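Chapter review: from sequence to fold.
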Amino acid sequence: MRLSSIFTTTAIFAGAGAVSLLAATLSVGVIESASKSDVLNELDAEGLTWAEVDTNGLQVFLIGTAPDEAARFQALSTAGRVVDAARVIDQMLVEEPEELKAPHFSIEILRNDAGISVIGLVPVETDRAALVEQFREIAGEGEVSDLLESADFPTPNGWDDALLYAIRALKDLPRSKISVDAEHVAIKAMTESEQVRVRLETALNRRKPEDLALQLDISAPRPVISPFTLRFVIDDEGARFDACSAESEEGRDRIVAAATKAGMTERAACTLGLGTPSRRWADAAALAIGKLAELGGGSVTFTNADIVLIGPEGTEQALFDRVVGEMEAGLPGVFALEASLPKTPDQADQGPPEFVATLSPEGQVQLRGRLSSDIARQTVDSFAKARFGSEAVYTAARVAEGLPQDWPVRTLAALEVLSGLVNGSVTVLPDSITVTGRTGNAEASTQIAALLTSKLGEGASYDIRVDYEERLDPTLGIPTPEECEARITEVIGARKITFEPGSATLDASAKDIMDELAELLKTCGDIPIEVGGHTDSQGREVMNEELSRERAQAVLDALRTRRVPTRDYSVKGYGETRPIADNGTEEGREANRRIEFKLLKVEDPAAEDPQAETPAEDAPAETAEDAADNNDGAEAAPDGN
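The token string follows.
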């Protein structure tokens, strides 16, 4: 009985121990897992992702390779904030530090009249004391400022040779800056003259070590050239400079380029110097050389701001006058031109001086010949621009001496006469005026005669040969809008207004048809016309619409340049929406690519729809690159519906 009781008690204690051991084991596992997880999370939060964690019971082991001691200590501190620091076991390693990289050894040497300054970093092996002593010998009585530092690293290859070369160069360069490293020496210096500069550059290049890169920037003060001179000649021996001066390298290059274009083949020696009369010396010289080339010979001489142009014997007077006039107009204001044209011994008199003003059918005005003064030329130019528009006038008249006293009055009267013509010309001579051209004014000849008589006096001599054309008469022959629409069809016929492939640019072949249309539409006056563009169905619909509108706008712009009144015109791009033939065939697509002119009526929906019409003044001219397939022509017809 007693034995049974003891066994029972023992069994109870054994069971309790087993349960306690199991509970302890489970508790330790939970603590290990929680400690590992918490420490890892904290390390990651600090950015210490290189560190790993392991546990054994209550002990926490930190494993990994820290980039440096500071990172290792940070990992220990971080783990100690999560668990008891006594439980943290450090098993981390630290990366070996990289070998220190050698610095870049270089020095800057500055020398002027006050002495020598040297700054930079040199190897410890360089004898600084000996180096500074060399600088003192070169500086003489000047000061030597030693701002060198040294570093205990191996001397790089080439350092000693580069330093020795720099010191030798410094002896010859009293005003210089020399930059030195083991592979490169850069020298910037000023010499006393161009000859010294050339000699020094040759010597420095000759004694340079083979493996050393050398950069030279040696300059010499430019001489003062007085007078500043240039002379260019074209004769039987060719084109050449007898003298050439320039204010800068850029200016010299421009002058030489102009001479080369004029036929010069030999190498030009153009002296750089100070004393130019204008910053636009190169502009004036290049212009004069180019104009001399147009004459085909002669000479042009610059002496400061005075220019003398001598043309070749036998040159046509009209050509000489035009070239001189253009040169006078293009020269900068400070320059004064004197031009002369020698005559051959057997050359007959080339006739009296003249002034000619011409008006083209497109409204372009050209003025050439002779005028009595700069003021007279400015007056004539301003008067012409006021009458015909600034963009339409081109003045190539020259100033000449010996013209009649009433020459300014005669030239202005000629321009007034010209403004009454549709196109033509007026030629002014000392004793007569000749008028030729076309007009829509039946009384033009009488009115011109009256004008010339009032301006020049009753004894004035003039010859009027003006043709009256009824279709140009603004008071007669004006068609009704419907008649104008029908005449458009007649003028165009079976022809097409064509464009460059894939663009809204009119083809060169469209010029004739546009000229004829312009002449007709000028007689129609201000009538509401829609210029409509159409394409075939190839390409995207949106791009086709844009291309068709741009082509219509291009036609309208071309009419404007021909002085057609387009105030009531509009443009519309229909794209592929209104075909007149089958887009399934090439012939059909060709027919569908067209320009149509349509008279807009009050009840016409297109005239009331703001989206269907764009005023000519506001219509932009753009391009449609994506509609490249619609690239042929555009047929002109009175109505595309």
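Two observations follow directly from the output. The chain has a mean pLDDT of 83. The two ends are 129 Å apart (CA to CA).
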